[in-house]
Amino acid sequence: MDKVMRMSSEKGVVIFTKSSCCLSYAVQVLFQDLGVIPTIHEIDKDPECREIEKALMRLGCSKPVPAVFIGGKLVGSTNEVMSMHLSSSLVPLVKPYLC
Questions:
Q1: Alpha-carbon distance values, 75 to 29, 36, 46, 48, 84 (Å)
Q2: Is 73 within 8 Å of 93 (Cβ atoms)?
Q3: Does the reported pTM lie above 0.70?
Q4: Residues ≥6 apart with Cβ < 8 Å to 72
Q5: Could you read off the pLDDT of 86-95 as tens digits, one per residue?
Q6: Do 85 and 64 meet the contact criterion of CB atoms below 8 Å apart?
Q7: Which of 17, 29, 85, 91 has the greatest CB tally within 10 Å of its CB?
Q8: Which of 19, 63, 69 lies closest to 39 in space, CA to CA?
């Protein structure tokens, strides 16, 4: 869990993904369209993939990927991010991290 907390705090917007996950890609594109360049951690390329997945689930992710952190805090997965975007509450959160 320490590794996940450290990785999630590296930059303003951090997304844990898997290289083959289409939902992860959609979330990445959303942030890029908003003008944010997120830090991407493709956990399937990490030798500690299983431990990272378990840590993300313990933190409250309903699914391990995509897991989005903004300002070091867990926002959630695709459903939470899209709901925030549709309710106009995502942009104020990412405003400090715009390019």
A1: 17, 15, 22, 22, 9
A2: no
A3: yes
A4: 5, 8, 9
A5: 999 999 999 9
A6: no
A7: 17
A8: 69
